[in-house]
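Example 5.3 — Ubiquitin
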Amino acid sequence: MVTIEQVEKLRKHTGVSYEEAKKALEETNGDVLEAVINLEKQNRIKPPNEGGQYQSSSGQQQNSDSKINETSDENQSNSNSTSFGEMIGRFFRWFGKIVHKGNTNSFKVMKDNEKIMAIPLTAMVLLLIFAFWLVIPLVIIGLFFGYRYWFEGPEVSNPSVNRAMDSVADAAESLKKDFTNGMNDKKGE
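Solution (predicted structure tokens):
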């Protein structure tokens, strides 16, 4: 037996008249889907352009489909913002580690094996970036006045860096001696 709800449903999905809907449903013993297929086969209704499927409750289904798409879009944007947020977080963690290493290690200035001063590497790097025109000449001039520079701290355990700094100081000392000997030789002549 065909009910009015079945007829209404078939009309809603196919746009056929009550009489056609009732007849199609009677031929299929109330099966709405079978009635739609038969109407398509008889060219009384047009099949969907995409060759897709009919839905029994198009309004609700469309709403749920659009909700699914919106949810998918939100998830996509959340994953993008999360990945961007993660990238920012990783950058700040990396930067924090670098600053921490710079603060636990120091640049030491010595003269005659006595420590004159020590500044954190972070401060030294900032000075080199923002006042290199002052710091670099001072460091070079200091070498000719007998100052030596060392790196110390838990992260600077490689002694080859300090040996290289000592060899530069020794070369500056040697240059200074050669210059003073050359000047003394000229005075003696």
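Remark. The mean pLDDT is 82.
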